[in-house]
Amino acid sequence: MFKENSYNPVIIIPRAYQKNAEDYYYVITIYNEKDELITRNYYSSREWKHIQIHKSKISIKRVSSKMKNEILITTNSPAYFVDLYHPKMSFSDRGFILLPGEEKTLKTTQNSNRKTDIKDIEVFSLNNFLNDDKNCKK
User: For residue 1, with 0-12 CB atoms within 10 Å meaning exposed, 13-18 middle and 19 or more buried, which class applies?
Assistant: First the structure.
């Protein structure tokens, strides 16, 4: 749905994901020749504090083997400034933009010998705070 390539790095977020007709969001992504993400940024028509955006459903699942400990993150709608928190874990990336159809893999470092339940990881995004959904977690 949002698959971009190095020839078309600007993605206009479809109106279905925007709550207000006055709000426009653009996501600019630059890839290298191996189709690896180099950088991503955004442009919005107004300051974030004046924008209403839909709450995203961000899913995480564990991807583990003997040599690595990773989690895979997906979303159902554009998620801005995604952050994960667990008191005994560190994550390889924070504050990123994630678009529907994308999968982002994060390396995790555990500060404890006990295995962490993935359900204990808290997921935050700007979407949690800039919407008027009645079921919004504030």
Answer: exposed
